[in-house]
Task: inverse folding
């Protein structure tokens, strides 16, 4: 039930949109106060311009969401679906005058089906909570963004999130079997069932995953689980050059290995992470690779030994292994915190380029050159095993040149990635941040097809307009 405060807020509100929601959905939590709405203006890209939502609704059921969509449509108000707001493309940031539908209160695990290795969840569940719940059943939900303790499954589906174990288990898309979604006219549809194999008609599931709330709103997801793998063994390899680390990534792939994690940090990031966590990392190294195996028994040691050979051949000067599972956890936690370690040094603008794995050394060389040319501080880390790198620009807080420099650096990074056969975003999404580069990345024909899909599914353009296309 709504609290007295919220009801007072509604009664006092002269806004007809707020009044309509309050009247038709009296049990839905609704934020109309400006201070509350302000906290839904930004996602994790506070450096981008964003609008103030006109109202923020926190539904608890699919029927609530469908009614909210119908109301927004009647008032011709844009809708921004929002999970935990940790996105790095401005996808959940406010649009001036929008209705933000925040899924925080739709966070139930509806079912864990052990026989079919499936979990059915509401979109607001936090990734880490789902992982923990299925682990209690001896099962594993693979998608593993570095933000897994904060981000929601709805947001992961919205961005087709990646993370630290895509190199072995794929992106979020590879762990979803079907969705329940609310369409732009308020109709509720299901895109599939619990079948591992199902090719009936177009794959709407895969169309909606990664569409950043622009085609439909997810209200339930049927996710694929796996038997829990053994605890991971972890190895760190330090390199005197960035290119050496890049060559090792290509070497590990060429050796036919499939580690569960293959992450990279450059010197700048190593120092920031070490300052924050005091791990005793080799701060003289130009780059570090973290390699993990979740193979059973001796196979893990064998996989890491073969990865070590590839690292040594590429010039690694030092290779260390975690002594036990707890030490491995600390190292993984430190890698996950790389973004926040850099944020201790200033305002961080994170990028997300990706290239074919064998081109990682070229991309790393290009990133170094771009940072030097524009005279910006840049820390690079990322999921090198997927060819996905996050060059993070670090500015002094309040630097008046930050916006212009980001734009110039970003353009050079994107051009370099595309020239290497890559993409401007590996996992964070086009959102609001990278729209100008969609056509250069996909081509005019593909963007035309995307526009016609958007027009067919959302003819009035109310679902997260201005994002993606
Ligand atoms: C420190 C840090 C580390 C990160 N590491 C990674 C990483 O390793 N890999 C990675 O991929 N990302 C990473 N991210 C980015 C971010 O966490 C992911 O993009 C995540 O998927 C966003 O989830 P969220 O719940 O915060 O979604 P939000 O930011 O709230 O939303 C993301 C997008 O999904 C849409 N959306 C949300 N819910 C729904 C819904 N129910 N229906 C339809 N659309 C919806 C939104 O409109 C928006 O476009 C990181 C972010 C931070 C801050």
Result:
């Amino acid at each position: 039930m709504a609290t007295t405060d919220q009801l007072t807020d509604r009664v006092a509100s002269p806004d007809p949109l707020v009044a309509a929601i309050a009247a038709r959905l009296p049990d839905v939590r609704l934020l109309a106060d400006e201070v509350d709405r302000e906290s839904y203006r930004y996602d994790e890209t506070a450096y981008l311009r964003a609008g103030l939502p006109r109202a923020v609704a926190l539904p608890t059921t699919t029927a609530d969401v469908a009614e909210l969509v119908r109301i927004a449509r009647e008032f011709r108000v844009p809708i921004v679906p929002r999970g935990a707001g940790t996105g790095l493309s401005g996808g959940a940031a406010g649009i001036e005058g929008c209705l933000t539908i925040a899924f925080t209160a739709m966070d139930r695990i509806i079912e864990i089906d052990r026989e079919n290795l499936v979990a059915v969840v509401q979109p607001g569940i936090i990734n880490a909570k789902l992982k923990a719940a299925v682990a209690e059943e001896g099962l594993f939900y693979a998608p593993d963004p570095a933000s897994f303790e904060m981000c929601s499954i709805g947001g992961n589906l919205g961005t087709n999130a990646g993370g630290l174990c895509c190199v072995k288990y794929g992106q979020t898309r590879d762990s979803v079997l079907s969705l329940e979604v609310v369409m732009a006219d308020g109709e509720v549809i299901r895109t599939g069932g619990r079948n591992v194999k199902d090719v009936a008609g177009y794959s709407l599931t895969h169309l909606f995953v990664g569409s950043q709330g622009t085609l439909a709103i997810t209200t339930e997801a049927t996710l694929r689980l796996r038997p829990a793998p053994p605890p991971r063994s972890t190895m760190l390899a330090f390199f005197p050059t960035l290119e050496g680390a890049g060559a090792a990534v290509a070497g590990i792939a060429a050796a036919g290995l499939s580690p569960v994690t293959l992450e990279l940090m450059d010197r700048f990031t190593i120092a920031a992470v070490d300052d924050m966590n005091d791990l005793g990392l080799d701060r003289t190294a130009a780059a570090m690779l973290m390699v993990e195996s979740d193979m059973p028994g001796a196979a893990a040691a064998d996989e890491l030994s073969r990865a070590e050979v590839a690292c040594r051949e590429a010039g690694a000067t030092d290779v260390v292994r975690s002594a036990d599972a707890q030490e491995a956890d600390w190292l993984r936690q430190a890698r996950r915190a790389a973004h926040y370690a850099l944020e201790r040094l200033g305002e961080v603008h994170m990028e997300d380029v990706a290239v074919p794995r064998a081109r990682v050394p070229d991309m790393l060389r290009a990133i170094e050159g771009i940072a030097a040319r524009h005279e910006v501080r840049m820390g690079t880390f990322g999921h090198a095993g997927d060819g996905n790198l996050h060059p993070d620009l670090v500015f002094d807080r309040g630097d008046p040149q930050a916006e212009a420099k980001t734009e110039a650096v970003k353009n050079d990074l994107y051009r370099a990635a595309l020239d290497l056969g890559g993409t401007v975003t590996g996992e964070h999404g086009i959102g609001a941040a990278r729209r100008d580069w969609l056509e250069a990345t996909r081509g005019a024909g593909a963007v035309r097809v995307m526009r016609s899909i958007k027009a067919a599914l959302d003819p009035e353009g109310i679902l997260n307009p201005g994002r993606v296309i």
